[in-house]
Design goal:
19 strands; single chain; 15 helices; five-stranded mixed sheet; 36% helix; globular
Length: 560
């Protein structure tokens, strides 16, 4: 074993960095592993804002925030976890502000808050439309200030499990090559989402669900994996996100006839209905021939140049660069794209998994605060609040335990498997399998889901997994071997796709992001007010169920 720490965090986005700061401040020796530089983490792409009931724009409070989140989750969110998030959010946001986060301001100098989809109050604090960028810089400053060690450009591949405890991580040094075992009393997974499972996505190339599969392969369950959120406004054709902040500021969605079609789907909330509702409405318009080249139009023109330039300047730049449209003068072509995985590693409200010593926080985790549908602004808040909580708990556990063991076999097994992959001289290139996976997931496991298509997708994934057994890494070198890491990422994605299809087929109802309008159009609380859980038996996913934690909110019909 080459190094050991009290707390080792895999991932340096908002969740990983917030966890590291907290664990360090609790007195632990902390290190972070990240496959990309921390400030390039995908959190930096977050645009619209972060939700906390500060009450700066209305008479808001954490109870209202919790209710909106429970309802938005289509009642699949665990209400104890949601309450924790909403109660702690205001303090956690002020802490970010005290560290230097430059939030946009009200006239009298308080943190400004804008309306977001399915929120009963204007609750989303923001820094223009670059909120994630601002947060990631502030958190990175705090890392540097504390001199926290970052294993930069290290690719975590496997968890070390010994004596029924997670005791470290096996990783590949991207700069110099070579496998390294880093021991730790506790490990926190903060590896983000898996949007790259889909062809059209807002997620960066790095979002390949690595931590979810690492946990799965270490015997930990994944929860609600069928729940992949489609964001209604992704730029056509690139998939770049156009923030919900546009609709928060008053933008309209139009079909080919210039109609604000949401009046037929969500007559009260209109463009501020929840994402699942708007994505389905858009897809229906497109499928029924009222789209414009496979898209609908997001119209900002009536907001006026001054407001667009002040509050949505990043959106304007993205539209001009990637769609050649200036939203001051023309509507933006948008369509639903995969955006956020509500499912993930099953944890408790401290980020702890069923494996002693292993935690998860941020998008990789499913605690679950988002249930079947995440509200915009709640993901960044989750990274901060649950990053902090997992950092605290992991540090306290580590400081009260002494030993770290990385058995030599953990390293030699990994080396042998890697050698087998690198020694192969004939086979199929990873990108072919990856492209086929992403295209077919989009077609068969997208906004609307049909039994026959999901079954077909199960067979496709099985076939791709077989082909993956003979995958060829052409680059045999040590330095920045992205051919190798893409092959490893593909292995992660394939396992996750398998889990998603199994869970999707089992959930015979429509709830949140899981829409089955052709066979099970309604939510079925009697049979499915419960989480799917999957574990891995060496060959494939094994399905189980867990009741939703309810505290005070009984399921109601959602209407917008
Ligand atoms: C375009 C976009 C806009 C968004 N806007 C908002 C918004 O306005 N408000 C909101 O609440 N939410 C928003 N979201 C969602 C939210 O930003 C994300 O869910 C959240 O930032 C994820 O943070 P994270 O820390 O969990 O993961 P990430 O920020 O994705 O970080 C993952 C980290 O894990 C590391 N990593 C991954 N795999 C490995 C590996 N194998 N080895 C080593 N390191 C690894 C990466 O290097 C990275 O450092 C948005 C999402 C997108 C895609």
């Amino acid at each position: 074993m080459e190094a050991k720490h009290d707390v080792l965090i895999v991932g340096a986005g908002c969740a990983g960095m917030r966890a590291a700061i907290e664990a360090h401040d609790a007195g632990a020796d902390v290190a972070i592993i990240s496959k990309i530089h921390p400030v390039r983490s995908h959190s930096g792409a977050a645009e619209g804002g972060i939700n906390a009931a500060l009450g700066n724009a209305s008479d808001d409070d954490p109870e209202k925030h919790a209710y909106d989140t429970v309802k938005g989750s289509d009642y699949l969110g665990d209400q104890d976890a949601i309450q924790v998030l909403c109660d702690e959010a205001p303090g956690d946001v002020y802490e970010l502000e005290n560290w230097g986060a430059v939030f946009s301001r009200t006239e009298d100098g308080r943190i400004a808050q804008r309306p977001f989809g399915a929120a009963g109050e204007p609750r989303t604090a923001y820094a223009a439309d670059i909120t994630g960028h601002v947060l990631i810089q502030v958190l990175y400053e705090q890392l540097v200030k504390r001199d926290i060690l970052v294993y930069e450009e290290y690719f975590a591949w496997r968890l070390v499990v010994d004596d029924d405890r997670c005791q470290g991580v096996i990783s590949w040094d991207l700069v110099n090559g070579g496998l390294h075992a880093i021991g730790a009393k506790t490990v926190i997974l903060a590896t983000g989402g898996a949007g790259r499972l889909y062809a059209g996505t807002t997620n960066a190339y790095a979002c390949t669900g690595d931590g979810m599969t690492m946990a799965l392969q270490a015997g930990v369950a994944l929860k609600d994996m069928e729940m992949m959120q489609f964001h209604p406004t992704t730029l056509s054709p690139s998939g770049v996100l156009i923030t919900e902040g546009c609709r928060g500021e008053g933008a309209y969605l139009l079909n080919a006839d210039g109609e604000r079609f949401l009046k037929r789907y969500a007559p009260n909330a209109m463009e501020l209905a929840s994402r699942d509702v708007i994505s389905r409405a858009e897809q229906t318009e497109i499928d029924e021939g009222r789209g414009v080249d496979g898209s609908v139009l997001l119209d900002l023109r009536h907001l006026g140049a001054e407001r667009i330039l002040e509050r949505l300047h990043g959106t304007r730049e993205l539209s001009m660069t990637f769609a050649l449209v200036d939203p001051i003068h023309d509507p933006i072509p948008v369509r639903p794209g995969s955006h956020y995985h509500m499912g993930g590693v099953d944890t408790d409200v401290w980020g702890l998994t069923s494996l002693e010593g292993l935690y998860a926080a941020g998008e990789v985790a499913c605690v679950s605060v988002h249930g079947a549908n995440r509200l915009g602004g709640n993901a960044l808040m989750e990274t901060i609040t649950y990053g902090k909580r997992s950092g605290r708990h992991a540090a306290e556990w580590a400081l009260s335990n002494t030993t770290v063991t990385v058995p030599p076999s953990a390293v030699s097994d990994a080396e042998r498997d890697l050698r087998t992959l690198l020694d192969r001289t004939d086979g199929e290139r990873p990108w072919r399998i990856r492209d086929e996976l992403a295209t077919t997931m989009h077609e068969n496991f997208g906004v609307f889901r049909r039994e026959s298509q999901m079954q077909q997708q199960g067979e496709i994934v099985a076939g791709l997994r077989e082909r993956y057994e003979r995958v060829l890494v052409e680059d045999k070198g040590n330095v920045f071997n992205t051919d190798l890491t893409q092959a490893l990422e593909l292995g992660f994605l394939l396992d996750l796709a398998d889990c998603m299809v199994v869970c999707g087929l089992a959930r015979k109802e429509s709830r949140g992001a899981h829409a089955r309008p052709y066979d099970y159009p309604d939510r079925d609380d009697e049979n499915f007010l419960r989480h799917t859980l999957v574990t891995w038996n060496g060959e494939g996913p094994v399905l189980d169920w867990r009741p939703v934690t309810m505290t005070k909110w009984q399921p109601q019909v959602r209407s917008y």
